[in-house]
Specification:
There is one protein chain. By secondary structure, the chain is an all-alpha fold. It has a single domain, classed as Tetracycline Repressor, domain 2, CATH 1.10.357. The termini are far apart. The model has no long low-confidence stretch (mean pLDDT 88).
Length: 210
């Protein structure tokens, strides 16, 4: 008796309506990410998101019932992008170079408002994120990968072994929302590429004369 192989089982077709729904949701998340980079959570409104996407606010609420839910989904999506970037780095790249690349990538996203500003400690978003399993799992996965590279770089003597790895990790995370970037950008004295180079240098080399 002939049995169809599981790999050959035809997949159900996605309806045009479902495709349009997903496309609109992707546009909503993309706009939310950008607005979180421009305004941060507390200043952003659902009206801002609806206007950015070009839809009615009522349509926005068909996808996300609150600003917290929307921004949580956006933050989960961003963590996914970070994980994809880390996974795409060459396996034979030295750990310090991987950390350099990560900070550089984060700064480039920050300059184009693609990297959300972190919510304040008393923000309602922070509490929602801490209760979001997908966000926490993504954060742990990213932190574990970066932490592994930090300890490898310390073992090689290219990052001070006297620094607790957690301090190094948080220092690298802080570059993704470093106000120095916007200060230099607004000053107009440096190009985006020069700003990235300067912040990477101060992050890894410090301020002491070499």
């Amino acid at each position: 008796m002939y049995k169809m192989d599981a790999m050959q089982t035809p997949q159900p077709k996605v309806s045009f309506k479902e495709q349009m729904h997903q496309a609109r949701e992707d546009a909503i998340l993309q706009s939310a990410c950008r607005l979180l980079g421009e305004k941060a959570f507390d200043a952003m409104t659902m009206d801002d998101v609806a206007n950015a996407v070009g839809i009615a606010k009522a349509s926005l609420y068909k996808h996300f019932c609150s600003k917290e839910e929307l921004c949580s989904a956006a933050m989960v999506q961003i963590l996914g992008r970070v994980q994809a970037y880390l996974a795409g780095l060459p396996a034979d790249m030295p750990p310090l170079e991987k950390l350099h690349a990560l900070v550089r990538w984060s700064l480039e996203r920050l300059l184009t408002n693609e990297m959300p500003l972190l919510p304040s400690r008393n923000s309602t978003l922070r509490a929602v994120l801490m209760a979001n399993k997908d966000y926490l799992n993504g954060l742990v996965a990213v932190s574990d990968q970066i932490g592994e590279w930090i300890t490898q770089a310390q073992a090689q003597g290219v990052i001070s072994p006297t620094l607790p790895p957690l301090v190094v990790l948080y220092t690298l995370y802080a570059r993704a929302c470093d106000p120095v970037v916007s200060f230099l950008k607004e000053g107009g004295q440096y190009s985006d590429a020069e700003i990235v180079d300067l912040v990477v240098r101060t992050c890894f080399d410090g301020l002491a004369a070499r």
